[in-house]
Amino acid sequence: MTSRNIAVLITLMWFIPVIAILIVFSLNARLTICSTIIERLYCDNFSVVKLACDDTTVNNIYGLTYTTCVFGVFLLILYTYIKILLVIFSGSKKSRQKAVSTCTPHLASLLNFSCGCFLEAIQSRFNMNGVPILLRIFLSLYFLICQPGFNPVVYGLTLTKIRIICKNLVFRQI
């Protein structure tokens, strides 16, 4: 791969999200805000949209389209992992072990991130008043605290010393 190709890929990688965010800003800028109370611990885009007294159909369509595109990327990543695992499981036992030890943290991290995004989308789109307040707080904090804290643990467990210390901590308590 040439330096030019890498530069083009990096530019595209940044260009598409920047355009997506600019569209969100332009859609939100046209809204008239009628309320100032956000039902979350922090401010996110859809919480701001729900404060509007204008018609938010365009915002909703864009949000659902964007979510569908992101979900499509998730499915593509999941598909590639399945294909990788299918190829590797047809190989030797050693290659299977190496593939599982390599792919498992990636898949766990991807699933954790996807669950966090799913919980975030569900909380934003649906009325959560029937859900206990402590559960709502936990679900909103999951995306901010649990999810980023999970990755170092998952990737750290692949290191032998850290794995041994974690096993000792867990089994000492039992």
Description:
The structure is a single chain. The chain has a domain at 57-173. The chain is globular. The relative contact order is 0.07. The longest helix has 33 residues, at 57-89. The model has no long low-confidence stretch (mean pLDDT 85). It contains six helices and no strands. It has 174 residues and is mainly alpha-helical. The chain is 79% helix and 0% strand.
How large, in whole angstroms, is the Cα Rg? 21 Å
The helix fraction, in percent, is over 70%
Ranges with pLDDT <50 over ≥5 residues?
none
Distance between the first and last residues' Cα: 52 Å
Helix and strand content put the structural class at mainly alpha
Q: How many E-type strands?
A: 0
Q: What kind of sheet is the major sheet?
A: none
Shape: globular
Pfam families: 7tm_4
Domain G-protein coupled receptors family 1 profile: 1-155
Main location: membrane
Membrane topology: Multi-pass membrane protein
